Structures are given as C-alpha cells and as structure tokens.
Amino acid sequence: MIKIGQLNALTITQITDFGVFLDAFDYGSVLLPKKQLSDEPEVGQSINVFLYFDSDNALCATREKPIAQVGEWGLMEITSINSTGAFVNWGIEKKDLLIPYSEQRARFNEGQTILVYVYTDNASGRIVGTTKFNKWLDKTPQHYKSNQQVELLIAERSDLGYKAIINGEHWGMIFSSDVIGKLFIGKRLKGYIKQVREDGKIDLSLQKIGVAKMDDLSEKILDLLDKKDGFLPLNDKSTPDAIFKVFRTSKGTFKKTIGGLYKAGHITIEADGIHRVK
Predict the structure, then answer these.
(1) Residue 181 in this model has a pLDDT that exceeds 80
(2) What whole-number distance in Å separates Cα of residue 41 and Cα of residue 18?
(3) CATH of the domain at 253
C-alpha cells in the first residue's frame, strides 16, 4: 500500500536515460530522476523513496528525506509568506511545505524557525503543516505510570517551564524546577512521568523519581568508577554543569547518591573526587 507523505519501498519497472520508473501500484508509475540514483539501477530492484504531490498534483518520488514525514513533528525555517500562508523548508529540493493561515497559532516572519506537525488535509488531499498541535494530542486515554520512561519533544516555552509532547500522543509539562541542562524548542530527549494529576494533566521529570532515581544513578557511578580505575574527579563540591555533563542529573541528586554509596562503604569522598573502595 502506497503512503503519500512517507517513505515507501518501490520496485524499478523501467530504466531510461533520464531516470527510472517505479511501480506506484494504484497511482501507476512514478519517475525517480537520474540525479537521484547513486548506483547503477536494475529492473526489479527495490528503492526507498519519499512520495509527495507537486503543485500540479502530480505524484513525485525523491530519495531526499524530509525534515518530518506525515504524522511527525520537525523544526523548519520559514522561507516565504504569501496570501495562502507561510511556506517552510521541508528538506526537499524545490518543494516547500505550506502552513495555511488557518493552521497558524500566530503570524510568522521569514527566516523564523518553528516546530511544525505534518499531516494530510482530508478535504484537499494536500500535505500541509500546522502549529495548532492540540487537535492532534490528548485524543487517546493516557496510560502512564510514575517513573515510566518516555520519549519527549520540547514544543513550547511558558512561564511555568516547558511543554513537551509525550511519545507523540500527549501533552506534558516540565516545570522550571525540574529542568536539567539546556532545553530548546524541537529538542528530543528521554524523560520520565513524574505524576498524572486527577485532571489528567501530566507532570514530567528529566530523571527518575525518588529511590528508583538514586538506585539507577548509584549503578552508573559504580560502573564508571570500575571503568576509570576506581576514581572520578567529582564530589559534592563539583559544579552542577560538571556533574550533568557526566551523569545528566542534578547536583542535589548526585550528592544524595554518593552520600548513600559512602555510608554503604562503596566509596570514599576526597578533595580530589570519589574513590572506589576495594
């Protein structure tokens, strides 16, 4: 089954001087230009191509990979604005993506970089972008548990912190007090469910919560000590940035964890760093 706006594996049916024709099933044949071919093609060979419609509504194939396929989010730069809407660089030569005015939460400027969701408009059949994410999120019941690891996409900055998209399905919030390291719109990272509130809103953390968080960090510290001949130049006096660079955790969590390892007799804490007890 052909999926417009996504990558498809299509078979070469004909080779010409200007490219190859691919079997696009119900859509007939589609041309892949010669400049898109890196190897000597053969009839029957399968090639992964991205399929889209051009401005004349003709099916096109390319081996270029767009910044985001249909059903995905991506950071894109606005290249032009006209009476139809804003056009963004989709990552495909000679094919920008339209964001109609009806799909814009705010008016944009050329050169601005924004987070865009790509979808197929049911009425026109055109692939377009939107910055109105609410209609694509929180449409299914949330099913998360505390400390569950999830995939996050930073989508918005607010006075409270950062709004993130969880597993491409739900909204969540990383409060400023839980921010570790540098966050920015479009950044993808792993996070954890901190809690699901009674109203259904989801609080997020960038590290495990409570004992589970400390146990996980304890293992990482001991494993790294074993790999580094029993010494790490970090202790409770180290800067938050130095600690985050190695363990991607807060200084407070790091201090509690090495304190527990010290009391358990696994390490000593010296002025130059922590040492593994043999």
Answers:
(1) no
(2) 12
(3) 1.10.10.10
Round to whole Å and give the CA distance between 181 and 205: 12
Q: What gap in Å lies between CA 66 and CA 51, rounded to an integer?
A: 10
Q: Are 114 and 97 in contact (CB under 8 A)?
A: no
pLDDT value of residue 217: 87
Rounded CA-CA distance 228/2 in Å is 52
Partners of 20 in beta bridges: 15, 32
- Residue 144 falls within a domain, yes or no? no
Q: What number of other Cβ atoms are within 10 A of residue 145's Cβ?
A: 8
pLDDT tens digits, residue range 143-156? 999 999 999 999 99
Question: Tens digits of per-residue pLDDT, 71-125?
Answer: 999 999 999 999 999 999 999 988 999 999 999 998 899 999 999 999 999 888 8
CA distance 129 to 77: 12
Q: What is the CATH number of the domain that holds 179?
A: 2.40.50.140
Considering the domain boundaries, does residue 88 fall inside one? yes
* Domain that residue 53 falls in: 7-62
What is the number of other CB atoms lying within 10 angstroms of the CB of residue 103? 19
- Residues ≥6 apart with Cβ < 8 Å to 101: 84, 85
